[in-house]
Design goal:
HicB-like antitoxin of toxin-antitoxin system domain-containing protein, 4 strands, 18% strand, Ribbon_hlx_hlx, four-stranded antiparallel β-sheet, alpha+beta, HicB-like, elongated, 130 residues, Double Stranded RNA Binding Domain
């Protein structure tokens, strides 16, 4: 699993979170646990933006040396959260009626929306072609 190191700094009543290797990726929480959860969410949101600049990965040691009063914590890249932040685009699709009925029966049973099923199927198809 991919991760980035985050700098956790206690300041007043908050825990500030900064991810130095991802440009302008900062958040905070009231507690350490909330700050961690917010860090995971912020990292996913930052990485979903195409213009985000990602720098070479810093080491835990170099970040700790630069931030001796802070905790250095690895934050995982959560792809499920990242996908929620990914920009979407609406378009029309024409399907044979009998196929659309089958799609709707399947997605209803799987608890999915039609667009979610079609996007996942398209991703699987494209990955299989490589």
């Amino acid at each position: 699993m991919e991760y980035f190191y985050a700098v956790f700094t206690k300041e007043d009543d908050n825990v500030l979170v900064s991810i130095p290797d991802v440009e302008i990726c900062e958040t905070f929480g009231k507690t350490w646990n909330e700050a961690y959860e917010m860090g995971v969410d912020a990292l996913a949101a930052c990485l979903s933006e195409p213009e985000t600049i990602v720098h070479p990965k810093s080491t835990r040691e170099s970040l700790q040396a630069d931030n001796p009063e802070s905790e250095i914590v690895p934050i995982p890249v959560d792809e499920s959260i990242r996908k929620k932040y990914t920009k979407t685009k609406r378009f029309n699709v024409i399907f044979p009626e009998d196929l659309l009925v089958r799609v709707d029966e399947y997605r209803a049973g799987a608890g999915m929306k039609r667009s979610q099923l079609l996007a996942e199927a398209a991703e699987q198809y494209l990955e299989a072609q490589v």
